Amino acid sequence: MVATPAHLRRSAITLGNDEVLRIRNDFPILQQHVNGKPLIYLDSGATSQNPLSVLEAEQEFYEQRNSAVHRGAHHLAVEATEAFENARETVADFVGAEWDELIWTSNATEGLNLLTYSFLNASLPGAAPEATRFALAPGDELVVTEMEHHANLIPWQELAARTGAVVKFIPIDDAGALDLEAAAGIIGPRTRILAFTHASNVLGTINPVAALVALARSAGALVVLDACQSAPHLPLDLKALDVDFAVFSGHKMLAPTGIGALYGRSELLNAMPPFLTGGSMITTVTMERAGFLPSPQRFEAGTQRISQAVALAAAVNYLSETGMDRIHAWEAELGQRLVQGLESIPGIRVLGPAAGQERIGLAAFDVAGVHAHDVGQFLDSRGIAVRVGHHCAQPLHRRLGLTATTRASTYLYNTTDDVDAFLNAAADVRAYFQA
Fold first, then answer.
1. Is the pTM of this model over 0.85?
2. What per-residue confidence (pLDDT) applies to 397?
3. Most buried by CB count within 10 Å: which residue of 52, 110, 269, 406?
4. 83 and 208 together in one domain
5. Which residues contact 185 (CB under 8 A, 6 or more apart)?
6. Distance linking the first and last C-alpha atoms of the chain
7. Under a CB-based contact definition with an 8 Å cutoff, are residues 241 and 264 in contact?
8. Is residue 145 exposed (0-12), middle (13-18) or buried (19+ Cβ within 10 Å)?
9. Cα dihedral angle (376, 389, 262, 129), rounded to 10 degrees?
10. Residue 123 sits in a domain of what CATH number?
11. Please, which pLDDT band fits residue 7 given cuts at 50, 70 and 90?
12. Cβ pair 411, 48 in contact under 8 A
């Protein structure tokens, strides 16, 4: 196995620029130049970069253990299965779950679709008796928020269209905060599911999970948490948060693309009908019918994402050894630096909590008179990578009177110098475009 880098064995309340510079040495891609400038990567909210330990873990699997899991008695198959299931335990522990409560998916989007299609299957004639608790009928209500990523909105829209259920949403105020008073009036006796993001990928807002869960519990509704922007950046304990389901993506937390996870309470997962069917998820099969294994295999038909799961476990180990509390503290500092700097630039409007208010380490903003895509290209000319567009959150942008924004998002490998270089470039945008 790859040895833990010395800098990851340090302990402190937060990171600092010197330690971050050492961390950055673990990320080969960050050593390059773009347009003649040292790369400043501020797009981790979309996809994070991979440390050597993660790259090596996946390569090591292919070099030494590559085989199908759960299917063979030979040496490689046993080792592959062991690595695959050890990875599940590692990642489950990272988010405060039991091993059988973590289902591998390609990403969070697939996890949410798995849920909605399973609930749809529970709503069809002939569903198993234990699945009826998930069945939806006309007039049932699915509640989301106005700040959701499309991945946590469209699947619920499609489920509603197929079952006669209704999608309702909790509105945001002009500052981008959820209206909890409105939420209390929206979540009621007909609410079956409350699905919301833990941290907004546009606003940077960290939502009040406890208050929302309490509203759902009072209505007897299931709670689905989108943890894509929290699992990589905050200490996360899904059991303590008391949510029923949660999803997150590996590629946002130092792992490769193609791997993510769905968390669900075991008693719920074992009552849900499968989404995909085929090999590796069955007990017995006749020409007329099949029986299904319990979770997690129940939802893992076919050949799985074995090397990616191993790499995600390596990523989780890297984050754990660095310290999620320290990462969170550092990114909170960078996030405040971003917002304070952007708010001081004439003609720039920052979305989400104002300076001094809690947020994750990202900031989306609008530059008066300059399209977000032009802003992004200008920053790229300075070697600065950011995200532009609606960030898969069109309803949120529409609510705030915008079609697109530019987003800078930080991670454990960003320094205050990165943020300052970005702010200096952002201050030059309007003059460059004569806006």
1. yes
2. 97
3. 406
4. yes
5. none
6. 54
7. no
8. buried
9. 180
10. 3.40.640.10
11. very low
12. yes
Same domain, 35 and 65: no
- 1 falls within a domain: no
Final residue before a domain boundary, out of 268, 287, 320: 320
| Residue 270: pLDDT over 80 | yes
Closest C-alpha to 202, from 357, 330, 387? 387
Cα 193 → chain centroid: 19
Give the C-alpha separation, 162 to 256, whole Å.
34
pLDDT at 12 over 70: no
Residues contacting residue 8 through CB under 8 Å, at least 6 positions apart? 23, 318, 321, 322
* 184: pLDDT strictly greater than 80: yes
Residues 258 and 289 in one domain: yes
Q: Which of 278-282, 328-332, 420-424 has the lowest average pLDDT?
A: 278-282
| Average pLDDT across the chain, whole number | 95
CATH number of the domain enclosing 413: 3.90.1150.10
Structural domain range at position 166: 59-320
Residue 4 is given by DSSP the state: P
Give the residue carrying structure tokens 């689905």.
224
- CA–chain centroid gap for 412, Å, is 16
Q: How far is CA 202 from the centre of its chain?
A: 13
DSSP class of 33: E
Rounded CA-CA distance 379/422 in Å is 8
Return the bridge partners of 262, or none. 103, 247
Cβ atoms of 209 and 194 closer than 8 Å: no
Domain count, the chain: 2
pLDDT at 5: 39
**Consecutive H or E run containing 106:** none
pLDDT tens-digit readout, 24-43: 999 999 999 999 999 999 99
Asked whether the CA dihedral 116, 121, 125, 131 is positive or negative, the reply is negative
Reported as a single tens digit per residue, the pLDDT across 186-219 is 999 999 999 999 999 999 999 999 999 999 999 9
The answer to whether the CB of 199 falls within 8 A of the CB of 360 is yes
pLDDT digits (tens, 9 = 90+) for 401-418: 999 999 999 999 999 999
**DSSP secondary structure letter of residue 393:** -
10: pLDDT strictly greater than 60: no
Active site residue 228: no
State the pLDDT at residue 435.
Answer: 83
- Which H or E run includes 41? strand 40-41
Q: Which two tokens stand for residue 414?
A: 């960003």
